[in-house]
């Protein structure tokens, strides 16, 4: 059975759990990280030398890096579903997965840490406000992409929707000012109708 190491409130764990939910895969999730601890043991280091979550164990296969785990599960269990069989569609899915990590994540992290993990009196509002402003332009790029397709890589949900979908929930839950982005909102509404998204992603921020 698949084993996922990581607390359910981690956005990176949520990507993996959403993929598992969409694919209806038998699994066990073990709470480690933050309030649960467990990352500093020698056993965990042997699985993931970064001491971060998530980590996936699938028999002898051990993987870390959330987007890589989503790709692995999609390729192994979701050919033609989460894993697009068409090379061009797969390229587009991959592109937006990398975009989440490299382009979207830095400002999202600034706002999330600033408003959720930092005590009110210690918040750097100039930095948070600048990130909120910058996110309007960044998210508008995905909005533009979604103007001609229902999902990131075409007409159905693929792995390409997962990292940005998790971030989109977080973006809304943070309650910050957002630009009016109609295509993004329509796509986000579609995601919210999916059981696996509601169960694994739409949980209170902490
Ligand atoms: N690039 C890594 C980042 C992993 C990461 O930073 N995970 C965070 C949680 S989102 C973590 O391990 N935090 C330490 C903790 O939860 O104790 C990935 O995508 O998996």
Please name the defining characteristics of this protein.
about 210 residues; alpha+beta; Glutaredoxin; Glutathione S-transferase Yfyf (Class Pi), Chain A, domain 2; 4-stranded mixed β-sheet; binds glutathione
Structure description:
β1, α1 and β2 form a beta-alpha-beta unit. This protein has 2 domains: 76 residues, Glutaredoxin; 112 residues, Glutathione S-transferase Yfyf (Class Pi), Chain A, domain 2, CATH 1.20.1050.10. It has a 4-stranded mixed β-sheet with strand order 2-1-3-4, covered by helices on one side. α1 runs parallel beside α3, α1 crosses α6 and α4 packs antiparallel against α5. Helix content is 55%, strand content 8%. 34% of the residues are buried. The chain is of the alpha+beta class. Glutathione binds next to α1 and α3.
Short description:
With 206 residues, the chain is α+β, with helices and mostly antiparallel strands. The protein is built from eight helices and four strands; from the N terminus they run βαβαββαααααα.
């Amino acid at each position: 059975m698949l084993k996922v190491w990581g607390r359910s409130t981690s956005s990176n764990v949520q990507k993996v759990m959403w993929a598992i939910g969409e694919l209806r895969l038998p699994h066990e999730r073990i709470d480690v990280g933050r309030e649960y601890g467990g990352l500093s043991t020698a056993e965990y280091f042997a699985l993931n030398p970064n001491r971060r979550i998530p980590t996936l164990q699938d028999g002898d296969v051990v993987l870390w890096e959330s987007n890589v785990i989503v790709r692995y599960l999609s390729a192994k269990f979701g050919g033609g579903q989460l894993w697009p069989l068409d090379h061009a569609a797969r390229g587009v899915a991959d592109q937006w997965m990398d975009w989440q990590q490299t382009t979207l994540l830095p400002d999202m992290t600034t706002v999330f840490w600033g408003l959720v993990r930092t005590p009110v009196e210690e918040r750097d509002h100039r930095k948070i406000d600048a990130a909120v402003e910058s996110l309007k332009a960044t998210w508008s790029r995905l909005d533009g992409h979604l103007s001609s397709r229902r999902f990131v890589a075409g007409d159905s949900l693929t792995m390409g929707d997962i990292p940005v979908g998790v971030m989109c929930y977080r973006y809304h839950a943070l309650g910050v000012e957002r630009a009016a982005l109609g295509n993004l909102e329509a796509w986000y509404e579609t995601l919210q109708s999916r059981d696996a998204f509601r169960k694994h992603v739409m949980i209170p921020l902490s």
